[in-house]
Design a protein that fits this description.
175 residues; alpha+beta
Length: 175
């Protein structure tokens, strides 16, 4: 009877301890456990990679405007930051350089530009990257080149940031 009681106590102790032991065992990366190894590596920041928010500082040009060399859909485009623009506005030539090819029939959105009222084609940008800051799924308008002198980085990008601010001639993007 004592043997049976001892075996029951041993089984109960193992049953209580087993979940914690199993969890620790599965959490340890091993050569044979590629999933655990990949998860452990993915959770750790790469050497030299920033661990906090990503931030970009842009100095105002002589004319007082802020210009950025961005990547739109992984292609380079120069834009002027325009906090008053509701959306990103791309010149047709910049849109084409970014791989966007609207049809003439797509130009159905009336917009006000500095050059007057014109028609624009609406599109969605997969991504816009300014140095270390990236925003995805951004609404944009494509405007004929003769109606827009430079593409504009507007509210649809800026609203995708954690914050942006202008202070002492410097524009800060943070994501």
């Amino acid at each position: 009877m004592r043997s049976l009681l001892a075996v029951c106590l041993l089984i109960a102790a193992v049953a209580v301890a087993m979940p914690a032991l199993f969890k620790n065992y599965m959490a340890q990366p091993r050569a044979g456990n590629a999933i655990a190894s990949a998860e452990a590596v993915a959770d750790e920041p790469a050497e030299g990679e920033p661990t906090g928010p990503r931030q970009v500082e842009i100095k105002a040009e002589r004319d007082g405007h802020f210009y950025v060399d961005a990547e739109i859909n992984m292609r380079p485009v120069r834009l002027m930051v325009d906090t008053g623009a509701t959306v990103v506005a791309l010149r047709m030539s910049d849109a084409q350089a970014a791989g966007l090819r609207p049809r003439q029939a797509d130009f159905i959105n009336p917009v006000q530009t500095a050059n007057g009222t014109t028609m624009a084609a609406e599109t969605m940008l997969d991504s816009v990257v300014v140095e270390d800051v990236e925003v995805h799924d951004i609404r944009a308008l494509i405007i004929p080149d003769d109606q827009l002198s430079i593409s504009l980085l507007g509210g649809s990008f800026l609203n995708g940031l954690e914050r942006f601010e202008v202070a002492d001639g410097t524009l800060i993007f943070e994501n």
